[in-house]
Amino acid sequence: MKSLNDLLTNKEEKEERWIVENLIGMGELAILYASHGHHKTGIAIKLSCEVITGGVELGATQTGAVMYYCLDNTNETEMLCRVKAMIENAYPNHTEDIGQELLIAFRNDTNSNKLNLTKDYHSRETDYPQSSGVPDYNSPIHTDTSWIEAGSWDREDGVRLIIIDTLSKAMSGAGVNDDAAVRKIIDNCQDWIKGSGNYLSILLIHHSGKDVRKGMMGSQILANDLPTVLKIRKKKDGYELVREKHRSKYKGKSIPFKHREVLTEYKGKNHETVYVDIGKGLDALDSKIVSLFDTGLPKKEIIDNTHLLYIDNTPTRKSFDVVFNRRWKRLMDTGFIQEGQQGNKSEV
After folding, report:
1. Residue 242: enclosing H or E segment and its boundaries?
2. Which long-range contacts (C-beta less than 8 Å, at least 24 apart) are formed by 106-113?
3. Which pLDDT value is given to residue 126?
């Protein structure tokens, strides 16, 4: 215990540690919410793949396994197709890594870990009964353990991130407006993290209310007590992941993204599905190009206008054209500009 003077004169600041740099803190309980159809699960899958592969598209990540409780999506095929589409289109060189390190528990799978965050204990598979020395994988033995011990076991398994999709499906016998139940959930999750030695983080996926402007559904405790609140907001040209509440200078900053519709093969059939494609943040030049494009100007006039604004940053018009074309191609690749609109082509 420190005296008041010690606390007041202690100039050492706690070093911020991240699972995903400047987005999700290590040893932290965070929440992500959005309206229906705003790709909450898509972002959660993207986060999972980034943590497993050590990606940097959302911020440099700590590498490890991800435990994904898919409680809201009872269609197992749909979820697996979305994960497969993400791997095929964004992580083709990490198929084996993600296949081994993304651990998914489905709500309708009787053999999966049972999760009820309002209980005093965590129920998990610990063994399989055996007959003549052969394990019966269809009848796992579930053991009730403390949330602190669950965190210790998850750390032993190399888990760095736990995703619960969605929160409302992990609170049997209670609703999201029940303050006591919500406080119990927060306490249990914090014990879960504490048991890992603050090695892992937990991300809760949640819905917004009927009036999106009023924030997330249910008890205000969720917004007040959690250090990180992320939301997905629809834009004219896509979506953005917003740091609505954050303990960093990035509070209020957003990460743009698009959803891509693709076909993926699963069990011999083609399935229509989507995956999330993260766009890079736009600097002043990028933003100006996009805003001029949105007014309907053709590319030639856009480059003339932006050159006048940035004439002091490049020695010649020719060098500016090179810079501009690189930006233009990147904006096309990330979906901010669509080739063919307004007579625009990929070359000047």
Report:
1. strand 238-245
2. 106/70, 106/71, 106/73, 106/74, 106/76, 106/79, 107/70, 107/71, 107/72, 107/73, 107/74, 107/169, 108/74, 108/76, 109/76, 111/137, 111/138, 111/140, 113/69, 113/142
3. 64
3-state secondary structure of 328: helix
Helical ranges in 167-246 per DSSP H: 179-195, 221-225
Could you count the other beta carbons within 10 Å of the beta carbon of residue 119?
A: 17
Dihedral sign of CA atoms 94, 331, 60, 185 in order: negative
Q: Rounded distance, CA 189 to CA 300, Å? A: 55
Count of Cβ atoms closer than 10 Å to residue 334 Cβ: 18
**Type of residue at 241:** L
pTM of whole model > 0.90?
no
| Beta-carbon count within 10 A of 15 CB | 5
**Class of residue 303 by CB neighbours under 10 A (exposed 0-12, middle 13-18, buried 19+):** buried
Q: What are phi and psi of 307, to 5 degrees?
A: -65, -40
| CB distance 336 to 290 below 8 Å | yes
pLDDT digits (tens, 9 = 90+) for 298-314: 999 999 988 877 766 66
DSSP, res 267: T
